[in-house]
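2024-03-11 09:14:02 INFO worker-7 job=invfold-0412 stage=load source=structure_tokens
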């Protein structure tokens, strides 16, 4: 506003101004009663207009405000508290919130009704905004309502600021070359991770995992407190994950560093996980990528080793009959403890015999998402129908299984492209 103009809205009658002045509020709280009248005025400027209109220009505002008890004079304290609680954390974007005594907020609403005014701004929203402005100025960071790095919550009655540090995300595709690795951390079932005789004090069922091997160098670089690993599905522990790898998003919990070069971290990962896990196509990601990875239901291609006393021609013929057909799979007994017992229709997209010698066969299969491949080959006691064992008329046994491709789609230049 120009220096010559003053805040003087027609809605502010002398009677209303007198009633507002009689409330014995501070200049901030008085001005805020009319916070949505006019634009670009500070609350003290609005309060001055109230005083003028009430015939009391230069009114001395009470120090102990009947509503806020001087809160709006103490932004500096709250900025200091926020800076102290966030010390050691890197952040560029933040959101401010506050927890209030509900009685105070109710008292404020009662004042609005009493005056009456429909142009008031609430103490909470004014405090959050003004506190945020001062915090931004003190730190050259940016207040935001979307996608913050940290959230400050002022607990006004208690007098503390609570800090929420949002995760950082990295996406990529992992290749798993080791047949002893679970995808995610696997706490010991007996002790749930505390350590017991069953797990020799390690707290784990498996000594490490894709999550831990991939996560460790990122945790060090980000100085994070831990990880969550979101894979686009998962393979069995004893299955390798080959081809272009499986998409994943690594979530780094409460990181102290948010922006660091990925290349040295990937170099370290290459050394520490050599021969076990490889990561390709690593890039920064967002929470939305976690959803995309979890919701995807891509087809997958497998290479499967099979043993059985059956002629090659018979296997070949059975695969030809099975390819492109629907199969019905009841939940395998090995996973029934964590998934409900259902019968699911699945489709075998492609089934080929690629090698055969002395009762040992290598198959290549492409299946719909969620197909239990081992069970389709072996039959799972009739829980999968049809199955390859019944089609060849002899028991078959899976000797190894590798995922050779996850056929997910990727958004490239705004267009979804199906990878084949
Ligand atoms: Zn006040
Ligand atoms: Zn244990």
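2024-03-11 09:14:09 INFO worker-7 stage=emit residues=420
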């Amino acid at each position: 506003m120009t220096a010559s103009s003053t805040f003087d809205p027609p809605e502010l009658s002398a009677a209303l101004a007198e009633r507002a002045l009689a409330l014995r509020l501070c200049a901030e709280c008085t001005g805020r009663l009319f916070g949505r009248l006019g634009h670009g005025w500070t609350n003290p400027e609005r309060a001055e207009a109230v005083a003028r209109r009430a015939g009391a220009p230069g009114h001395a505002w009470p120090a102990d405000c009947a509503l806020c008890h001087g809160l709006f004079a103490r932004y500096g304290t709250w900025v200091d508290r926020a800076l102290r609680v966030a010390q050691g954390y890197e952040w560029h974007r933040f959101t401010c919130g506050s927890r209030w005594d509900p009685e105070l907020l109710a008292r404020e609403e009662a004042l609005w009704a009493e005056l009456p005014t429909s142009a008031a701004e609430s103490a909470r929203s004014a405090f959050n905004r003004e506190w945020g402005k001062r915090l931004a100025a003190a730190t050259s960071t940016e207040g935001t309502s979307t996608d913050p790095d940290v959230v400050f919550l002022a607990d006004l009655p208690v007098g503390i600021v609570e800090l929420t540090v949002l995760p950082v995300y990295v996406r990529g595709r992992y290749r798993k070359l080791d047949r002893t690795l679970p995808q995610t951390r696997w706490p010991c079932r007996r002790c749930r991770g505390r350590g017991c005789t069953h797990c020799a004090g390690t707290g784990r069922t498996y000594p490490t995992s894709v999550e831990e091997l991939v996560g460790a160098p990122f945790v060090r670089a980000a100085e994070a407190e831990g990880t969550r690993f979101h894979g686009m599905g998962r393979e069995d522990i004893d299955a390798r994950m080959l081809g272009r790898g499986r998409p994943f998003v690594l979530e780094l919990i409460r990181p102290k560093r948010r922006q660091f070069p990925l290349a040295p971290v990937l170099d370290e990962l290459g050394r520490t996980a050599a021969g076990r896990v490889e990561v390709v196509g690593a890039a920064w990601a967002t929470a939305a990528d976690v959803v995309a990875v979890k919701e995807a239901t891509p087809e997958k291609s497998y290479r499967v080793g099979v043993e059985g006393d059956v002629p090659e021609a018979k296997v070949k013929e059975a695969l030809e009959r099975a390819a492109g057909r629907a199969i019905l799979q009841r939940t395998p007994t090995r996973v029934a403890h964590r998934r409900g017992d259902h019968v699911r229709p699945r489709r075998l997209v492609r089934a080929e015999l690629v090698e055969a010698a002395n009762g040992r066969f290598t198959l290549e299969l492409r299946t719909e998402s969620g197909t239990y491949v081992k069970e389709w080959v072996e039959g799972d006691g009739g829980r999968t129908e049809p199955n390859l064992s019944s089609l060849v008329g002899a028991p078959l046994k899976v000797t190894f299984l590798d995922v050779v491709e996850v056929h997910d789609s990727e958004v490239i230049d705004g267009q979804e492209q199906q990878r084949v």
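2024-03-11 09:14:09 INFO worker-7 stage=report msg="The longest strand covers residues 343-357."
2024-03-11 09:14:10 INFO worker-7 job finished
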